[in-house]
Design goal:
By secondary structure, this protein is α/β, with parallel strands linked by helices. It contains 5 helices and 7 strands; from the N terminus they run ααβαβαββαβββ. The protein has helices at about 5-25, 45-50, 70-80, 90-105, 135-145; strands at about 60-65, 80-85, 110-115, 125-130, 150-155, 165-170, 175-180. Bound molecules: S-adenosylmethionine.
């Protein structure tokens, strides 16, 4: 085989295999249209959400629609909690992983590229939300069915229809709502 033929073969193999590998390891488009766009929670509101939930190192914090990962990363960095972020948009998951890496918390935090409505959340002891009023109401039956009694839920900006919150905070003009899953 001449050097030219060898070079051509290598280029062809790369053309066939590299995009396939790239696609399976780093999908670039959301699994489906996101239910809500990415808007980050300001850091002082993140801090207040984790404080009202009294997060400790014994908690498993799930952020449903985790964006750039700031809530799971803060839960791990500030409180030593384990945390899981779920986001339908792979670009957000990529950013969240980079932020976890930069904060040195990758051992305690993982991000899943998944639909929050289709993901098992039963291991959570704290759930955080910044979605929309209609999505909170749609999510409520899943929260009540899957989460253990006593699990704390915190939502930035939006309540949950007729499920009255136990606490409501005002953080620099932003509202934070807090509930716990009742005994069955
Ligand atoms: C308003 S942002 C909140 C981000 C983050 N939780 C925060 O408070 O900074 C909502 C996020 O939910 C994601 N999202 C929308 N629909 C989703 C779904 N069905 N499953 C998972 N993530 C979803 C969006 O991609 C977006 O990153």
């Amino acid at each position: 085989m001449t050097f030219r033929t060898l070079t051509l073969c290598t280029a062809l193999i790369a053309a066939v295999t590299v995009p396939a590998v790239a696609q399976t390891t780093a999908p670039q488009t959301p699994l489906r249209t996101p239910d809500v766009i990415f808007v980050p929670t300001p850091q002082e509101v993140v801090d207040a959400m984790l404080e009202v939930a009294k997060v400790t190192k014994n908690d498993v914090v799930y952020d449903l629609g985790s964006g750039d990962g700031r809530i799971p990363v803060t839960a791990a960095k500030k409180y030593g909690a384990r945390a899981v972020g779920i986001d339908i948009d792979p670009q957000r998951v990529k950013e969240a992983n980079a932020n976890a890496e930069a904060a040195g918390v990758t051992a305690n935090v993982k991000f899943l590229n998944a639909d929050l409505f289709e993901t098992d959340i039963s291991q959570a002891s704290v759930v955080t939300l910044y979605l929309l009023p209609s999505l909170n109401v749609k999510l409520m039956p899943k929260l009540k069915a899957e989460l253990k009694p006593g699990t704390r839920i915190v939502s930035h900006a939006f309540d949950m229809g007729d499920w009255k919150p136990e606490q409501t905070l005002n953080v620099n003009g932003r509202t934070v709502y807090y509930w716990t899953i009742p005994k069955r």
